[in-house]
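Before drawing any conclusions, I looked closely at one protein, both as residues and as discrete backbone shape codes, quoted below without any editing:
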Amino acid sequence: MIRELAEYERALGSAVATEEMLQEALFGPAPAVFAHMAVDDATGETVGFALWFLTFSTWLGRHGIYLEDLYVRPDRRGGGHGRALLAELARIAVARGYQRVEWQVLDWNEPSIGFYKSLGAFPQDEWTVYRLTGDALTSLGMSQ
């Protein structure tokens, strides 16, 4: 499903995670990422997933949840699976006293944007995402 998501997001070549890498991240000695699966009750088929990790707000002094990926197979969308996954993350956040659940969405992904807004989510237009990767990351990391 990760490859399906990468293809949907027009970035299939960027999806290089292996099964072993995911196994270690999710089930290794110190997991720092978590996943929930959406399963169709009638068929038992896995139809979607949410992959997330904890964040922390220095202003609020509380943790939050960062939703790295939410994916429901196209032929299963509209069946409540995405909503159920987000509702579970919201339930976890409320139960643990976390203050937010946040994520990014591609600007062109109007179906998802509409879905998120229907749940009461709103964009953070005043923030711009920056990323340090590749040679720039290595160069900076080796500069000390």
